[in-house]
Write a structure and sequence with these properties.
- The chain contains ten helices and eleven strands.
- With 295 residues, the protein is an alpha+beta fold.
- It folds into two domains: 160 residues, Ribosomal Protein S5, domain 2; 124 residues, GHMP kinase, C-terminal domain (Alpha-Beta Plaits), CATH 3.30.70.
- The longest helix is centred in the middle third of the chain and has 20 residues.
Amino acid sequence: MQSVRISVPATSANLGPGFDSLGLAVNMYANFTFTLQDEGLQIEGCPDEFKNEDNLAVTAFRGIYWRLGKRIPGLKLEINSDVPPTRGMGSSSAMLTGGVLAANHFLGNPFSKTELLEILTTFEGHPDNVTPALYGGFTATAVHNGKPHMASFPVSDEIKLCALIPSFQLSTSSARMALPNSVSHQDCVYNLSRVALLIKAFETADKELFSVALNDRLHQPYREHMIDDYKTVRLNAIAAGAAGIYLSGAGPTIMCVYFEPAFPDRIAKLLSGLRNQWIIKPLEIDRAGATVEEI
């Protein structure tokens, strides 16, 4: 039997002003082992409700075979993931990326990485999470004439991230529904200027730039009310020494950029008395992206 192991990093998208365009890969991983078999589908390592053909890794895997007109084989899928679902850490993008890379491998790699990004963008609907999942690092992606175009940016080794992951979930679709149908020119200019500053802040580890550049007017103000204790958590993160704070993806995870080693311990103490449990997860930027290993 043919088997392949795929490891996909979690991702943190939007980064404040970079709505649906900016993303970071971080060192939490969804690990998959795909094994071809004559027929049938077996899935291990996830809740029973996802042990079926609607599993995103399976649908992505089969989608690649379908695109090439190939017979879809039987499959055994083993999942071992640290990426929390519906928390704004790219769990769906990780599943899709895993499935696409596995199928591409078994078929002899007919698609380039650029083509895989295009396919993944079609599956996901927007590229801000799938791009860093595939490439790693700090990325920006724009869709032009139906095709995604991406760029990677340098990130200082001094940058430290800390995810504040709550015990409750927030679906991306619900968070999307909270957004207005239109925004003002003034708010668009506000965000554009901060995206430019944010790219430089990641390159230079400029704490003052982060405090300005991670602000946003396009999505975060409309989603804050959906996250219990958001304002309290934000104020405590600033008090603990965060250089900047933003909603990871659509939330509810709140990501902090920090430089002082004591920050994770400080914020853990400050959030310990809240009614919801918050997991404090120091993170590093994954610079490699998804990996494929034949076994």
